[in-house]
Amino acid sequence: MATINFESIKADIFKSKSHYVDAREYQSHWDKKWVAYCDLIGFKEICLRSKETTANVIVRFHRIINEAYKQTPNCQLFQFTDAAFCIGSNISDVFQFALQVSNYSLAYNAIILESKKHALFQHLIIPRITIALGDVLQVNQKNISSVSEGINPDQFLAGSAIVNAYQIEGKTFAGAIALSCKDASKFVDEMNIKGKIVVRGTPECKLSKSATTRWFKDVFDNAQSNETGVIELPWPYLALCSSDGEFWAESKSSFFSKISTIVDISNKMTSYFVSMNSNIAIGKHQVGLQRFIFKIISGMKGQKTFDINRFRNPSLFLKDSGLLIKK
User: Into how many domains does the chain fold?
Assistant: First the structure.
C-alpha cells in the first residue's frame, strides 16, 4: 500500500486543480424552485430501540416517497435516509407530491392500526412536510463538462429554498403540510386562489369542497398577521392536486376514514410520549397534531373555532362532531 501523507495529498490536489471552482460556471444551474421537505418523525428514537422496527419503518417510508414521486413526473427527488426533498418549478406539482406522501402514509398507518392488535406509535409512518420557495443549485445529470467533475449530481443540492424549507419545520408538527407565510402570495398567485379556488369532486364531496374553500380563504387572508410564520394546508380534505392547480376533494366517508386514523395516531402518540419517557419533541408534535385535528373537524362543520373543553380528547371531539358515518 502506498504511503500517503499530508504533503502528498496537498500536492495531488494542487496538481489536479480540484480545489479550484469558478462559480460563474454554475450560474446557469441556478433556478427559482419550489421545495417540499419531508422528514420522518421519531426515526432517531426508533433506530436506537429496535433494528427490526427500523427496517420496517424506513422501507415503508421509501416506498411511500417513491409512490408519491411517480405521480409528479415534472419534479426531481432527492432522498437521504429518513428525509426527502422534492424539487419542482410549479407549486401544484410540489404540493401534489406532499399531498400524496401524506395520503399514502396515512393509508399505510390505517392498515397497520387495523391489522396489528397492539400497534404502537413507533410502528407508524408519520411525516412532517414543509414547502418553501427559493433559489436551488442543481447540476444537470447529462452535463459532462467541468461543472459535474468530482461530484455526484444525484446527491448535489443546495440553495436558499432548501434552507427555507428546513428552517420552518421547527415551527410545525408531525402530520402537517406547512407553507412559509412569506411564500403565501406566490402560492396564491400560482394556484390561482386569488381569482377562484377550484375544488372539484362528486356530490359526496360537498362538505370537503366547502371546507377547503373556507380554509384557504381564511388562512391566506390572515397570512401576514400569522405569528407562527407558517400556514398549515388542509390536506385531509383533499384527494389530489392536479398539475393545472385544481383541487379534488375527498368524499365525506373518505374524510371520516382519514380523520379517524389521524385521531388514532394522535392517541398512539400520547401513549408513547407518556409511557416511553420519550423526547419532549414528541409531546410538542402531539399537541400540534391535536390542534390540527380540531381545526380540521371544525372547518368541516363550517366553524372557525373549536370547543377548547374537548382539547384533550380528540376521540370524544370527533364523536360529538356529527361527522360520524354509520357502518
Answer: 1
Judge whether 101 lies within some domain: yes
Place of cell 408519520: 126
Provide the residue range defining the domain that includes 263: 28-319
In CATH, what number is assigned to the domain containing residue 128? 3.30.70.1230
Element housing 161 (H / E): helix 160-167
pLDDT for residue 327 is more than 50: no
Please give the Cα distance from 289 to 299 (Å, whole number). Answer: 15
Q: Is residue 327 part of a domain?
A: no
Residue 65 lies in a domain: yes
Q: What is the pLDDT of residue 313?
A: 59
Q: CA angle, 260 as apex, 255 and 265 as ends, to 5°?
A: 125
pLDDT at 193 over 70: no
With the C-alpha atoms ordered 197, 201, 203, 206, is the resulting torsion angle positive or negative? Answer: negative
26 has a pLDDT exceeding 60: yes
* 23 within a domain of the structure (yes/no): no
User: How is 61-85 classified by DSSP, letter by letter?
Assistant: HHHHHHHHHHT-TTSEEEEETTEEE
For the chain, how big is the Rg over CA atoms in Å? Answer: 22
End-to-end CA distance of the chain: 72
| pLDDT, tens only, 268-303 | 888 877 766 656 677 788 888 988 988 898 888 776
DSSP strands (E only) in 157-196: 177-180
Answer for the pair 36, 55: CB distance below 8 angstroms, yes or no. no
- Give dist(CA 277, CA 174) in Å, integer: 18
Check: CB of residue 128 under 8 Å from CB of residue 169.
yes
Angle of CA points 211, 105, 54, to nearest 5°:
150
